[in-house]
Design goal:
- The chain has about 160 residues and is mainly alpha-helical.
- The protein has two domains: about 80 residues, no CATH class; about 60 residues, Recoverin, domain 1, CATH 1.10.238.
- It contains six helices and four strands, in the order αααβααβαββ.
- The strands form two sheets. The chain has a two-stranded antiparallel sheet with strand order 1-2.
- A hairpin with a 5-residue loop joins strand 3 and strand 4.
- Helix 1 crosses helix 2.
Length: about 160
């Protein structure tokens, strides 16, 4: 077995293992444990591996090209982003107790008692005393470690420019 083949098998198995992790719905393997006994048999693992390989091998030539591997990674990343956005929307809606489409300091502190006035003011980009969905989404697009400042600017965070 070549190193390239071993790496491909490891990547595929990592995907099988990741899909076997407990999900938000409760404990136990999801999707891979097809008989529901709480265990993953060799046959179940092989079936999951075969299914994952088939998903990646989009042209059906029984080989996964670099492009197919990248496309698979891009699809997983897009799926993860979509799930994260949905969860963020659910958290926003649950925190927006008055349903006005914006989060006040009181609403945010009810959900997170450790939130300080200073931190709230950093998130409140336009200074109106409310965090809108746009301000929340804008926060998530800042570079890692960056902090929002008033007027749409941001501090680059530690280690920037090195």
């Amino acid at each position: 077995m070549t190193i390239r083949t071993a790496a491909l098998i490891a990547a595929l198995l990592a995907g099988v293992a990741a899909s076997a992790q407990p999900g938000p719905g409760g404990p136990g393997p999801i999707g891979v444990d097809t008989d529901g006994d709480g265990l993953i048999s060799r046959a179940e693992a092989q079936a999951a591996l075969d299914e994952r390989f088939a998903r990646l091998d989009t042209n059906g030539d029984d080989a996964i090209s670099r492009e197919e591997m990248r496309a698979g990674a891009d699809a997983r990343r897009d799926d993860r982003r979509e799930r994260m956005a949905e969860m963020a929307d659910q958290r926003f809606d649950a925190t927006d107790t008055d349903g006005d489409g914006a989060l006040s300091l009181a609403e945010l502190q009810a959900a997170n008692p450790n939130l300080t006035q200073e931190r709230f003011e950093m998130m409140d980009r336009n200074g109106d005393g409310l965090i809108t969905e746009d301000e929340r989404e804008r926060r998530s697009t800042l570079p890692p470690g960056a902090r929002p400042l008033r007027g749409g600017a941001f501090s680059p965070g530690p280690g920037a420019g090195r």
